[in-house]
Amino acid sequence: MSARLRLLLLPPLAVAAALAGLYLWVDGQQLDGISLFALTNDDAATSATIFDGHVLTKVGEHVRLVGISAVFVLLLGIPLGILLTRTRSRIVSGVLNGFFAAGQAAPVIGILVLLVAIFQLKSWVPYVGLVLYSVLPVMSNTVEGIRNVDPALIDAARGQGFSRWQVLRRVELPLAVPVMLAGVRTALVLLVGTATLATFVDAGGLGDVINDGIKNQRDVVMITGAVYAALLAVTIDWLAAIAERWLSPRGLRPEAGR
Fold first, then answer.
1. Domain interval for residue 60
2. Does residue 80 lie within any of the structural domains?
3. 135 is a domain residue
4. In sequence order, what are the residues at sequence separation of 6 or more whose Cβ sits closer than 8 angstroms to the Cβ of residue 20?
5. What sequence ranges are listed for the domain ABC transmembrane type-1 (predicted)?
6. Contact 4, 178 (CB under 8 A)
7. What is the pLDDT of residues 84-121, one digit of tens each?
């Protein structure tokens, strides 16, 4: 099987197999009222599966948390990365790198609690916390990708009369895309994992399911939420890998040298 087919087929097949296995396992368990309510949000429920509406609603909330946060991570991380390659100011570079490095080094739950303490339970608080925690890989990889462009190519572009903006848009950014997209993949996986902690600031998502299982000591509920979160991370990483392959310049794709 070629590398392209493995990329396209193996991850979704593995996710489907894992969901099928989880479904069969949960279906074979003797669920009590607490577990049924946690999975269905219905006091009258007599049975539950991993595809009940309540669980899928939590999956949708988790995707919303990750998706909106990812948009702001890109809107913030890429321009800041470009800015760091345009400025020679060590103060600017040090402040930006230090700020976002501190945001990633601090526990995300600590960032969320601090934001709630300052701004109360605003709807945007979890997004700010997730963005601060996940923007560093995108910014750092943008800087690394642009700085690793061969200086000879930049000199050649300037020799043809390109402005600095044209050099950035037509030479540096296209050649930096593979490294930048690797940072985006890292940020997306970080977002999926850390978004489970948004349950502690009433933001919903799969963290609600996991937390219900932990609080009520119901392993079936906890494992259902945890497996969904893990499979969502695998799925998003798979989609990002496809985007990384096809958005990279043709000559830089893995199969280009074959």
1. 56-257
2. yes
3. yes
4. none
5. 59-240
6. no
7. 888 766 677 777 777 777 777 777 888 888 888 888 87
| Number of domains observed in the structure of the chain | 1
Residue type, 163: S
Tell me if 137 sits within 8 A of 186, measured CB to CB. yes
Contact 69, 195 (CB under 8 A): yes
Helix (H, G, I), strand (E, B) or coil at 122: coil
Instruction: Give residue 196's Cα distance to chain centre.
Output: 12
Which helix (DSSP H) or strand (DSSP E) does residue 32 occupy?
Answer: none
Tokens encoding 106: 């601090």
The single residue listed with the structure tokens 């609080």 is 215
Cα(27)–Cα(33) distance, rounded to whole angstroms? Answer: 15
pTM of the model: 0.87
CA torsion angle for 81, 83, 84, 87 (degrees, to 10)?
170
Q: How far apart are CA 111 and CA 106, in angstroms?
A: 7
Helices (H), the chain: 3-27, 33-40, 53-86, 90-105, 108-119, 125-147, 151-159, 164-167, 173-194, 206-215, 219-247
d(CA 18, CA 4): 22
CATH code of the domain covering residue 172: 1.10.3720.10
On whether the CB atoms of residues 236 and 221 are closer than 8 A, the answer is no
Q: Are 196 and 210 in contact (CB under 8 A)?
A: yes
Q: What is the pLDDT of residues 228-243, one digit of tens each?
A: 999 999 999 999 888 8
Domain annotation covers residue 26: no
| Token output for 122 | 């605003």
